């Protein structure tokens, strides 16, 4: 008998499948195989120089101690200003919490609110961490399938049909990882109309990709469309994707006072404040204007258009051109039932993905990981020549199928 008992809350969850796929791709790489890794979920750009310099300056000024648990007043004020400037939402800096990445804001919100068996509505395809975070916090993830025909978006009908008296939260991630789907003002209005009928349901919006959007319509938040939902909505955001700052680990959230206070209590007894130096960097990021955002968006757009066209030209594959984020969610249903050169019949997206890795040397993540098959997610956060090479390898592999 071992002295170390691993708790149920851990054994019922699994490590992130995108890291698992990445690990496998890296292992093959180390073994000397050429791999085009299209798994990555982070910008391939460096953090902009003004942000890096602000961090260095903070170190030199001695900003290397604990900060207020919920974040420095300067950063919380800048976040409140950001909500007004970019989202037309009035937020008090006291109702903002700065967290160790958006991930810890989401986790702490669930940990602060879920009792055993409480349900969380998660539209699929979903970011892989949502269901496991709910499970780790003793909740029950309830998956609501959003079909490709519906643009991978929740419809008012499917939302209404999924709500029960045990539902605590609805998660909305727009633009979405992995589908890139982004809700329009009219779609948010229709969802808000349903939500108004169910006052017991809280809403969590994960807006981490809000600036990576390709359509020209202005960014719109659920609370701008329906301010009456404000007393039960938690907004989660962060600097990771917008400013190429994944390693700095700064996220933030705002919402009802009691919830922000509870999240703060949990944070104070677990991680404490997010890194002081990273907070100084995030402050500079939020005050850095729009140049980096515009430039990186144009690069993503070029890749999206180029690679989506290449993939759509491959018989058996198709992908919707996403409105946002930096992923393509590729339908591989047309490959199922085909036989590989080695004589294997492909029956699931998991098998397609393993076959692509082994035979084409291209690493992507199976749709099964995101709760909607048969698809795979391909990240475009890699330079265009590598992406084009990856698309060519995929085309050649698919052409070899019988
Ligand atoms: N939400 C979504 C939808 C994401 O894709 C990610 C990053 N993969 C996060 C949240 C977490 O971001 P952070 O780096 O701020 O923890």
UniProtKB/TrEMBL annotation:
PROSITE patterns the record matches: AA_TRANSFER_CLASS_1
InterPro entries referenced in this protein's UniProt entry, alphabetically: Aminotransferase_I/II_large, AspAT/PAT-like, NHTrfase_class1_PyrdxlP-BS, PyrdxlP-dep_Trfase, PyrdxlP-dep_Trfase_major, PyrdxlP-dep_Trfase_small
Superkingdom classification of source: Bacteria
Name the record gives this protein: Aminotransferase
Cofactor(s) for this UniProt protein: pyridoxal 5'-phosphate
A matching Pfam family: Aminotran_1_2
UniProt family annotation: Belongs to the class-I pyridoxal-phosphate-dependent aminotransferase family.
Upper taxonomic lineage: Bacteria, Pseudomonadati, Pseudomonadota, Gammaproteobacteria, Enterobacterales
Classification via PANTHER family: ASPARTATE AMINOTRANSFERASE (PTHR46383)
């Amino acid at each position: 008998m071992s002295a170390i008992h691993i708790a149920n809350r851990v054994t019922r969850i699994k490590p992130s499948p995108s890291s698992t796929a990445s690990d496998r791709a890296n292992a093959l790489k180390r073994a000397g195989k050429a791999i085009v890794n299209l798994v990555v979920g982070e910008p391939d750009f460096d953090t902009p120089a003004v942000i890096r310099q602000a961090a260095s300056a903070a170190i030199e000024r001695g900003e290397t101690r604990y900060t207020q648990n919920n974040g420095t007043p300067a950063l919380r004020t800048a976040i409140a200003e950001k909500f007004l400037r970019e989202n037309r939402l009035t937020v008090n800096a006291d109702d903002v919490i700065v967290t160790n990445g958006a991930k810890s804001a989401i986790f702490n919100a669930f940990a602060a609110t879920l009792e055993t068996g409480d349900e969380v509505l998660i539209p699929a395809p979903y970011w892989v961490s949502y269901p496991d975070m709910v499970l780790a916090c003793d909740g029950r993830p309830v998956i609501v399938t959003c079909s490709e025909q519906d643009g991978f978006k929740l419809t008012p009908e499917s939302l209404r049909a999924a709500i029960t008296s045990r539902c605590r939260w609805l998660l909305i991630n727009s633009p979405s990882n992995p589908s890139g789907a982004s809700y329009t003002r009219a779609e948010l209005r229709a969802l808000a109309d349903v939500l108004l009928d169910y006052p017991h349901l809280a809403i969590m919006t994960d807006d981490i990709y809000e600036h990576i959007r390709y359509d020209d319509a202005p960014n719109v938040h659920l609370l701008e469309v329906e301010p009456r939902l404000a007393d039960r909505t938690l907004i989660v955001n962060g600097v990771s994707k917008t400013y190429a700052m994944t390693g700095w680990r700064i996220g933030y959230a705002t919402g009802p006072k009691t919830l922000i206070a509870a999240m703060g209590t949990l944070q104070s007894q677990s991680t404490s404040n997010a890194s002081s130096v990273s907070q100084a960097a995030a402050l500079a990021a939020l005050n850095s204007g729009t140049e980096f955002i515009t430039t990186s968006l144009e690069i993503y757009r070029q890749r999206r258009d180029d690679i989506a066209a290449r993939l759509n030209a491959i018989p058996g594959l198709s992908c919707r051109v996403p409105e946002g984020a930096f992923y393509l969610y590729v339908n591989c249903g047309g490959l199922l039932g085909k036989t590989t050169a080695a004589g294997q019949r492909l029956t699931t997206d998991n098998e397609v993905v393993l076959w692509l890795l082994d035979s084409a040397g291209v690493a992507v993540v199976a749709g099964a990981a995101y709760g909607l098959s048969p698809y795979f997610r391909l990240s475009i956060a890699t330079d265009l020549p590598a992406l084009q090479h990856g698309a060519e390898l995929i085309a050649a592999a698919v052409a070899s199928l019988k």
